[in-house]
Q: What sequence folds into this?
């Protein structure tokens, strides 16, 4: 398969993830959609690594995976903290920081 | 054969992604994301990056998804209300997503990267195997490797601080 197909698939997945973030209001689902976008970026990195014939793009993808794991841990910790304080799990009701 | 595998995996990845967005219960969303991650691992294998595919299955589908399932079970997977704070959000969001896809596609198709329309460079049999990736990680990219381990430690400490119970007075 041409590299082009992988890049187009990756941008399609990225767009679906962005649409989910715009559409959903539960913080858990927003984190899941963030995962979709990060994985779409990973797919593009690995596809470009194959295109150039250089393994360094895969190292980049692995570092993105590490950062995604950190983001998940902190995000889920925040969700548990919100739940413990009996606040609503809805990003439209948690808007004290909105300007 | 490769094309068949690509289209099957692409279908799985796309279906999983749409499932994450469309499922009303977060629990089913997590299950759809697991399908998406496995399909992506197949795509990584097709791109001859065995180590990234294995890490994808072990780290994501193994560890991160278990964390998600625990948290969804803890906070309760209640579906969100149908109330829309922004009028027309349900129609505007897919429109914005489609616009983003069109924009990215224009950027990809009109790029001057000539190698995009090829199968990619000819790679040696050991391309992307754990030995090569490990050698790169521990020699050329040693500093980012250590920095990411510090980042993981900080994230673990941060999660414990965020989610701990308040001490009984």
A:
């Amino acid at each position: 398969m041409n590299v082009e197909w992988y890049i187009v698939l990756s941008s399609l997945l990225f767009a679906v993830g962005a649409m989910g973030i715009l559409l959903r209001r539960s913080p858990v689902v927003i984190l899941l959609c963030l995962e979709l976008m990060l994985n779409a970026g990973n797919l593009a990195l690995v596809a470009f690594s194959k295109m150039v014939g250089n393994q360094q793009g895969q190292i980049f993808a692995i570092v993105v995976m590490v950062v995604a794991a950190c983001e998940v841990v902190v995000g889920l910790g925040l969700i548990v903290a919100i739940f413990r304080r009996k606040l609503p799990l809805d990003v439209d009701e948690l808007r004290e920081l909105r300007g | 054969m490769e094309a068949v595998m690509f289209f099957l995996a692409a279908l799985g990845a796309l279906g999983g992604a749409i499932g994450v967005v469309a499922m009303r219960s977060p629990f089913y969303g997590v299950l759809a994301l697991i399908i998406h991650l496995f399909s992506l691992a197949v795509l990584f294998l097709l791109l001859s990056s065995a180590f990234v595919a294995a890490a994808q299955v072990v780290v994501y589908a193994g560890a991160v998804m278990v964390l998600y399932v625990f948290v969804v079970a803890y906070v309760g997977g209640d579906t969100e209300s149908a109330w829309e704070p922004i009028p027309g959000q349900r129609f505007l969001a897919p429109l914005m997503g489609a616009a983003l896809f069109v924009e990215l596609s224009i950027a990809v198709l009109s790029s001057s990267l000539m190698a995009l329309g090829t199968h990619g460079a000819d790679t040696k049999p050991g391309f992307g195997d754990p030995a090569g990736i490990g050698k790169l990680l521990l020699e050329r990219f040693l500093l980012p490797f250590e920095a990411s381990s510090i980042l993981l430690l900080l994230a673990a400490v941060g999660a414990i601080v965020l989610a701990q119970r308040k001490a009984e007075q």
